Prior knowledge:
Order of helices and strands: HHH
Number of helices: 3
Largest sheet: none
Oligomer: single chain
Low-confidence stretches: none
Helix content: over 70%
Mean pLDDT: 81
Amino acid sequence: MKKLLLKHILTIALVAGLIISFSAPAYSQCAMCRATVESNVGTGSSSDSNEVGSGLNTGILYLMAIPYILVGTIGFMWYRSHKMQKRNAAQKM
């Protein structure tokens, strides 16, 4: 049981480390988004700035929702697997 738990913890740590190591370039895009919004607002065209702002807000919502969806999916799969293991163990007795 302890080996299985240790294996899961190491796997999660490895995946988290890989995600963190590859996420650093994503922070550089914020400056580009800000420059795009500032240039569109600076030109005075309200329809373009509304479209850019709406697109950025949609992008922010996607970036915010994806981690929750992934964690929820992984949690559900783990729960279902754990429940099936308990059911199989109960049937064997």
